[in-house]
Design brief:
Layout: H1 2-9, H2 11-16, E1 20-22, E2 33-37, H3 44-52, E3 58-63, H4 72-78, E4 82-84, H5 91-102, E5 106-108, H6 126-133, E6 138-145, E7 160-164, H7 177-191, H8 207-219
Parallel strand pairs: 1-7, 2-5, 2-6, 3-4, 3-5
Antiparallel strand pairs: 6-7
Helix pairs in contact: 6-7
């Protein structure tokens, strides 16, 4: 299985990062699950996936640009990841995530939608939309610390991954998707402060990152609800 192969190939990163996993009992072994992690490093999806693997194989809403990297798309498809075109209102990606949850999969969605680059980022409503459309999905928070130190070789990171239940539970009746996403992100950031990425970290990211973010933000602030009635397509 591709997921198992990739996890095995990436084990050296876990060893180098001296990864510690806590709260794995909060991650259900079966049934639909929405995992909400903070996002400060490109290594976060790798670390979370390996940390969760004793109980679940995760599917991510991952930026579609990754599929353009030669050879990487094959692995992503083999691992059943879900491409999403950021800043375009990609309702097809949300529909795929809904289908995955209804099939009992575990789907990870970063409430921030992108790397924090050391700044407080407004929560995107995607995870709130999914929680409302699949109300029986369990919500699990996941905090990651130390992954931004992977690039500071030869210094070894100390990575900690913690799974937990949200303090106020899942989405409440009448709670807006954006408000729910913001609540999850607020709780994540109360536990783990934003941390800039990069060997020479720059708050907000280097100029090329700022330009790319400005282009994305100029397209749309958040994805619209797919379907004419605001519900995902069946």
């Amino acid at each position: 299985m591709v997921y198992d192969l990739v996890s095995w190939l990436l084990r050296p990163f876990v060893w180098w990062g001296r990864m510690r996993v806590e709260g794995l009992e909060h991650l259900p072994a079966e049934g639909p699950v929405l995992i909400a992690p903070n996002h400060d490093s490109q290594m976060d999806p790798v670390v979370i996936g390996i940390a969760a693997k004793p109980r679940r194989r995760l599917r991510y809403l991952a930026q579609a640009e990754l599929w353009k990297i030669p050879g990487l798309g094959w692995f992503l498809n083999g691992m059943r990841q879900i491409p999403i075109r950021r800043g375009t209102g990609d309702s097809r990606a949300l529909d795929s995530a809904v289908e995955a949850l209804r099939n009992g999969d575990a789907v990870a969605v970063f409430p921030e939608g992108r790397l924090s680059w050391g700044e407080r980022v407004r929560a995107r409503s995607g995870i709130g939309l999914l929680a409302g459309w699949v109300p029986d999905a369990r919500i699990v928070l996941c905090t990651i610390e130390g992954t931004t130190d992977y690039v500071r070789f030869p210094t070894r990171p100390r990575v900690t991954v913690r799974f937990s239940a949200p303090a106020e539970g899942g989405i409440k009746p009448g709670e807006a998707p954006a408000a729910f996403s913001a609540r999850l992100l607020r709780e994540l950031r109360e536990r783990v402060p934003v941390t800039p990425a990069g060997r020479n970290p720059v708050i907000g990211g280097p100029p090329r990152v700022r330009r790319a973010l400005a282009r994305t933000n100029s397209l749309t602030a958040d994805p619209p609800s797919p379907g004419s009635d605001g519900r995902p397509a069946d």
